[in-house]
Amino acid sequence: MRSIRVAVIGAGPAGIYAADILTKEHPGARVDVIDRLPAPYGLVRYGVAPDHPRIKEIIKALKRVLTREEIRFLGNVDFGTDLKLSDLHEYYDAVVFATGAMADRDLDIPGIELTGSHGAADFVSWYAGHPDVPAEWPLEAESVAVVGAGNVALDVARMLAKPADEQLVTEIADNVYQGLKLNKAKDVHVFARRGPAQIKFSPMELRELSHSPSVDVIVHPEGFEIDDAGQKAISSNKGTRLVVDTLLKYLETEPTGAPHRIHIHMCQAPTELLGEDGRVTAIRTETQELIGDGRARGTGEFTDTPVQAVYRAVGYLSTALPDVPFDEGSGVIPNEGGRVLDLDGENVRGTYVTGWIKRGPVGLIGHTKSDAKETIDNLLADLDQLRAPAHSEDNAILDHLTARGVQFTTVEGWEKLDAHEIALGEAAGRDRIKVVPREEMVRVSRS
User: Fold this and answer.
1) Distances in Å between the alpha carbon of 196 and those of 177, 238, 288, 294, 351?
2) For 20, which of 103, 190, 379, 380 is 20 to 30 Å away at the CA?
3) What is the pLDDT, as a whole number, of residue 371?
4) Does residue 305 carry a pLDDT above 90?
5) In the chain, what are the domain boundaries?
6) What is the pTM of this model?
């Protein structure tokens, strides 16, 4: 069996699953999982709210993969700066891109550029302790709008409404805790364009909104419409049925007078952000009506809700990579079954893609596994066509990075950082305190 070396760019679930599948299906494979961050796990570490420890359980499974002998983690290595695509093909038989989606999809309405208008992905990165975002976040608004009908919108609403002290049982970073202590938000308005049967919340996320004694969840009856398509979805899909049941319970529950409130408005589409002196003062929405097939249309009836900040949670977006084909319209690397295609639709030899940058930011972890399987199956089918690298020795890429002055981290370094964060937490009576500054992460990892 031919021995091959493969670089996977991106150490989130998509990249780690690809490495796992490849090394299990081809025992002659050795894989370097390369990431621009000093720590692995991608959106599991930096895209999940700190009060969701159950979701972070997946880290245990990912760690088992990264610590296998035939897989190596190289962190704090930036593709495009520390390594170019031509470099990678000098050291690897094939390259698999799994860089995911971390940017915010645009919301093209007037006023979106006003101060106080934010992308939800940026806010998520801040409260998840991402090292490459500012350490502080403006939280002066007392009334806030969140635009979107998915779990990210719920996470943002919950983090804005939940008192900071209730987060101390989590791994929340110190700068995030201090920032949330200054948060002035009292009312958080979540706007969904369609009705309760079309909302993309998961049942668990929706139920968790009411777990804080400091938060009332208020579902507004206006827009609580279920059309024929919605009835079919409720009858055929357990998740949809549970979401609608939970929304009904919130609708029928009297507010307790809690100091913070999350308002859920359905059949309301944002049309404009209003402002004064360059700052957001309100969001204008148009009432929608369902037309029977799950779609909605505007009624011409508008409502202005006073707010001082708006978070758009309308989807994640992948970003282009240097020297790699990219479809700006769909936000993915053009591919056929994971084989990267150039502008002429021809396969780019030895270059593959998996995860959200392959198929767009949709689907759960299970989809990521099947997605990686397709890509790896095609890579293995192409073995005879892959060009052997000029330098295939184990330490060749390490020597290259060292010569360039790159302070890369390893899985052993991650274990040091992991232990360090746990020790910080133990000293404060908590499970963990996440380290945020990149320099400190690298220092601890390389100590």
Assistant:
1) 33, 14, 13, 11, 42
2) 103
3) 92
4) yes
5) 4-102+318-408, 103-316
6) 0.93
